[in-house]
């Protein structure tokens, strides 16, 4: 069969409240034209994030009832620890309430003022946690990543030559850890090849620098390797994932992505001394080391989710269905980033609205109009998010102006996605009528969450 279907049936449904374009114009105006300020009820298709928004399976809901809520040494903890070790292969597992808590603990222990932490591209919380610890976060994406026209298979790779140059420049003693984000979320959800993971690992080992993987979307990355990298077609996603982690010294994970959980995360390492320091911090802010800020039932849901996310039928459907949206938009002439990433489709707002200058926030204007058109909520990744230096107050265009449409796992059907494609295409038809925006109120830090806008 050529048609790849959702490999699940729907047992529970959640109604979607329908609204009209006229109602949505009023709603978004009332929200200061900021999509983060909309009540989620007023959104028809919510593509704000793929994080914590997955649908759990009947097996996960069943496992919730098995949750052992004992404070220490709960049965659910052992089940969780076993599931994590089975895939990640590290000796020490430290549970946290989500990914950024794992990052905060790791960087609090490793990063000192003056340190430099390279990555293919840091996610914003990773960057913020490094900076909060006094370090400098450096992005070293592969050159193909900057070229929207490039159809290279692994646009998420790190530029290993730039990594070597950075180590030579600052000295290995000032680099406490090298990170690699799989897939590369801030770089368009693009995958990282096994060859690149190995190359980064080799460089890290040569210089005695620990190498960590930001593993949020590890299963999607493993699937891309299976599809695109010679020598992996006959391996299972689990084997590929294990190999990916075998080259690393540790990993941070948000279970809100590739573990189908609504909350949770963890930190793993083989370094016993480091793990002891991390557990001390864990107890201070997250909780006892056998639950780390999670309920026993959450640990159960993650353990089951980690197994399910590596199922081939699921991964095939997941990656094909994301590409389906990107390819349909491309066929309609809409500027999108290609090839499609794993968890999201990225609209290129600068090419979509070429008459809107970057300092009039084309990504924001496009995301507002997409909401008005179809009640679809995406997120601006561009000059609103990255354009202003919070310390100097200086504003300049970001590298790009994108709108990310992140696809929650197992939540929407193909007809929902056809609806999204139609909404984007309709906005594209009337793109010339869409003007720029200005900011009328903004906070000093992370302004995209709460700034208010008006049309220019
Ligand atoms: N690393 C990456 C690559 C991420 O994408 C995220 C979260 C985190 C770390 C932090 O994990 O949210 O559990 O604390 N990304 C979400 C997103 C929020 O929408 O892309 P967290």
Automatic annotation (TrEMBL):
This is Tryptophanase. NCBIfam families: PRK13238.1 (NF009709). GO terms for molecular function: tryptophanase activity. Keywords: Lyase, Pyridoxal phosphate, Tryptophan catabolism. PANTHER family: BETA-ELIMINATING LYASE-LIKE PROTEIN-RELATED (PTHR32325), TRYPTOPHANASE (PTHR32325:SF4). Its cofactor is pyridoxal 5'-phosphate. Homotetramer.
């Amino acid at each position: 069969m050529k048609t790849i279907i959702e490999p699940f049936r729907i047992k529970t449904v959640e109604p979607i409240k329908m609204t009209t374009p006229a109602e949505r114009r009023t709603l978004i105006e009332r929200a200061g034209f900021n999509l983060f300020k909309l009540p989620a009820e007023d959104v028809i298709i919510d593509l704000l994030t793929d994080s914590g928004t997955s649908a759990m399976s009947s097996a996960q809901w069943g496992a919730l009832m098995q949750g052992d809520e004992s404070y220490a040494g709960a049965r659910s903890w052992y089940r969780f620890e076993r599931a994590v070790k089975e895939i990640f292969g590290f000796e020490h597992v430290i549970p946290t309430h989500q990914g950024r808590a794992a990052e905060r603990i790791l960087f609090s222990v490793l990063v000192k003022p003056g340190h430099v932490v390279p990555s293919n591209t840091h996610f914003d919380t990773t960057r913020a946690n490094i900076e909060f610890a006094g370090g400098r976060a450096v992005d070293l994406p592969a050159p193909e990543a900057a070229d929207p026209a490039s159809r290279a298979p692994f646009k998420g790779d790190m530029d290993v030559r730039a990594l070597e140059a950075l180590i030579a420049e600052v000295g290995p003693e000032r680099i406490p850890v090298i990170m690699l984000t799989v897939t590369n979320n801030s770089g368009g959800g693009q995958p990282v090849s096994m060859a690149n993971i190995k190359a980064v690992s080799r460089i890290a080992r040569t210089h005695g620098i620990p190498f960590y993987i930001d593993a949020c979307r590890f299963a999607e990355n493993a699937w891309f390797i299976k599809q695109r990298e010679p020598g992996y077609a006959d391996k299972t996603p689990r084997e590929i994932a294990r190999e990916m982690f075998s080259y690393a010294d540790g990993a941070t994970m948000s279970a809100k992505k590739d573990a189908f959980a609504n909350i949770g995360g963890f930190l793993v390492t083989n370094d016993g001394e480091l793990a002891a320091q991390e557990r001390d911090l864990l107890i201070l802010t997250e909780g006892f080391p056998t639950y780390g800020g999670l309920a026993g039932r959450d640990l159960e849901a993650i353990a089951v989710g980690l197994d399910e996310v590596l199922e081939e039928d699921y991964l095939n459907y997941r990656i094909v269905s994301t590409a389906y949206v990107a390819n349909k938009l491309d066929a309609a002439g809409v500027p999108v980033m290609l090839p499609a990433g794993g968890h999201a489709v990225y609209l290129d707002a600068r090419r979509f609205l070429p008459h809107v200058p970057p300092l009039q926030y084309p990504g924001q204007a496009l995301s507002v109009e997409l909401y008005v058109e179809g009640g679809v909520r995406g997120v601006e990744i561009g000059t609103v998010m990255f354009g202003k230096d919070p310390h100097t107050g200086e504003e300049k265009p970001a590298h790009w102006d994108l709108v990310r449409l992140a696809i929650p796992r197992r939540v929407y059907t193909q007809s929902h996605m056809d609806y999204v494609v139609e909404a984007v295409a309709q906005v594209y038809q009337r793109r010339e009528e869409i003007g720029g925006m200005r900011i009328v109120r903004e906070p000093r830090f992370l302004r995209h969450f709460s700034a208010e806008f008006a049309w220019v």
